[in-house]
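Morning. Coffee machine broken again, so started the prediction first thing and wrote up yesterday's gels while waiting. Chain of 417 residues, entered below exactly as on the submission form.
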Amino acid sequence: MTARNGPTARVPISIKGKGTPKVQKPGRPARTITVARITLSDDKPVLAPRANRASPLQISRIKRAAMRVQEQPDVEQALVPYGRPEPILGAHSGYFPMFFDPKPVLNELRANFAGVRLADRYEITKLGDTLRIRHKSPISVPGLPSAEVARRALLRRLDLVYGIGPARYAALREVGYSSILDLCEHPGFGRDAVSAYQDWEPFRPTRLCDRLTFRLRGVGHLLSTLLSGLVELEEIVFLDTETLGLDGQAIFLCGLGRFVDGRFVVDQFFAPNVGVEKAMLEQTLAGLAGVKLLVTFNGRSADITWLKGRFFYHRMGSFPEFAHVDLLYGTRRQFIRDRPVLSDGRLPTVQSELLKMARPEHDVPSWAIPDVYDAYTKSRGAEEGLLVPIIDHNRSDIEALVLLLEILAGAALERCQ
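Came back before lunch.
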């Protein structure tokens, strides 16, 4: 399937109404059209969508999807015209998926992990129908700011008060208002300053985190990392999930990392099959007991949104509200927009270029994880070795969050000087 300018992605779609493409379901007649042409320029994918067959929103989604091509050494063989693997998209959408062949990944994993048993590599505890995989990580205690330093730094941000923008913020600092507490006596902003200070007395981390991210947007996400200094280290949980796809698909692995007696412990709750997902979510909920601050990477759009959806699906009530620090937005603001030191905002890129942290030896690409788990379930547990790269992948992501939080909290302190 090669065009004159490079490999061409063709996907089966059905046309329903004018300009409403939908992914064709198996077993139904489909019309195959070319939606994009991919060429390689300096080893980077360049996408030329058919503008007359895709809306601007779909074009942007296709462009994000093309970034996944970089994970495939042979693009032409990776684009499969009539496969049924999980659609891979950089955006959370089902439009125009690019199909990648999972067979080479599965064959490599079977060769490397044939006959491997999880019990031989990990500390596993059976909790009803689910498994808890515990790992004591060598990650050291991060150098987070003290409670007094973090409190003083955040109270300096007068723009947390409604009605104060950059210009008025600078003007108020010039006339001697150095903190929100000082501003409580201001004739014009005193009432709003008192309202903002109520997030501190008593301390309400959830409301304060919402105020930071709503009022200051990207900078607010960066400053929200200072909340880690206002709670006990044991009250912070680092979360990452693995799912069967995007847009409400089942969650089969949820990893929680927290410090216990000075050691970073990662508990991964695993569902051996989709039928026990609810039991796995219940164990995850129990693991979140006593948490005041939740740290994720892209959790606002992905992990937390998916957990809320799955809780609703299983009629488990609402997912608890936590002060949520999503490190993706602070990373973009600090290291892509203001200091462009990262080529992109993906966590593997952050690990390699910023944290100088190696990925697991046999890491599995994110797009292949649903297929690997599907192969495991079809083997009825006979191929446990296929899960090893997924478990290591999930744990590596959680460990990276600890190091990234420390770096972003230091950058946030500099912003408050």
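The radius of gyration is 24 Å. Going to sketch it on the whiteboard this afternoon.
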